[in-house]
Every structure is written in structure tokens, then in C-alpha cells.
Amino acid sequence: MSSYFVAFICVVGIAVGQILFKLSAASLARTGSLFALQTMAILGSAFVLYGLTTIAWVWVLQKIELGRAYPLMALAFVMVPIGSHFFLGERFNSQYFLGVVIIMIGIVVAVRS
User: Fold this and answer.
1) Helices 3-31 and 76-88 meet at what angle, rounded to 10?
2) pLDDT (tens place) for every residue of the chain, 113 residues total
3) What angle, rounded to 10 degrees, do the helices at 94-112 and 76-88 form?
4) What is the 3-state secondary structure (H, E, C) of the chain?
5) Most buried in the list 18, 77, 90, 103, measured by CB within 10 Å?
6) Is 16 exposed, middle or buried (0-12, 13-18, 19+ CB in 10 A)?
7) CA angle 87, 6, 104 (to 5 degrees)
């Protein structure tokens, strides 16, 4: 399996984890308790995902220089708002798309250098 593919999976995991953290915050607001079953399940899932992603990221860093791998993490700045739009109903404006283009150009330049 390509180390860049695993790095990409790590970025997806981080993005999904952020959405799970937001869902756990919303559950906490609804239930009023951090120890409510729904809140704990969502929050626990986020922690597990972050833990697994961190272990995978350490493996990636054995294979790829940090200076080449880390720019891929910027993809999370693209994925999280898109995920928040589809899963949380959050909205973003047209300036967001300009920012996405700039981020993507930066990632390509950094990884190819």
C-alpha cells in the first residue's frame, strides 16, 4: 500500500474525527451531560478514530519525509467544511471555494518540491 495513500486516509480520518467532535458537542448540548450514552458513543468514536489515525500517521512518517507528508494535512481544511455542509447542514460562501483552490495549489507545490 502506498504511503501517500495511507497519508490520505489519515487526513480523511482527521476530517471525520472533527465532524464527530462537532456531533458530540451537539449531543452534549441536547442531553446536558457528557456521560449521556449518545454523547459518550460519539465522543468515544472520535477518540478511537483519532488514535488509530495517529498510529497510522506515525507509520507514514517512517516512509515519507515530514516536509512532504505534512502539507497533505492541509486537505483537512478542504474536507471538514465540505463534510460539515453535508452532515451538519452548515453553509459556506463563494470565498470558501477561492480558499480551497489556493490550498490545493499550495499542497501540489509543496508535495512536488
Assistant:
1) 40
2) 699 999 999 999 999 999 999 999 999 999 999 999 999 999 999 999 999 999 999 999 999 999 888 888 989 988 998 899 899 999 888 888 888 889 889 888 888 87
3) 150
4) CCHHHHHHHHHHHHHHHHHHHHHHHHHHHHHCCCCCHHHHHHHHHHHHHHHHHHHHHHHHHHHCCHHHHHHHHHHHHHHHHHHHHHHHCCCCCHHHHHHHHHHHHHHHHHHHC
5) 18
6) buried
7) 65
Residue with cell 478542504: 78
What amino acid is encoded at 9 in this protein? I
Cell of 6: 495511507
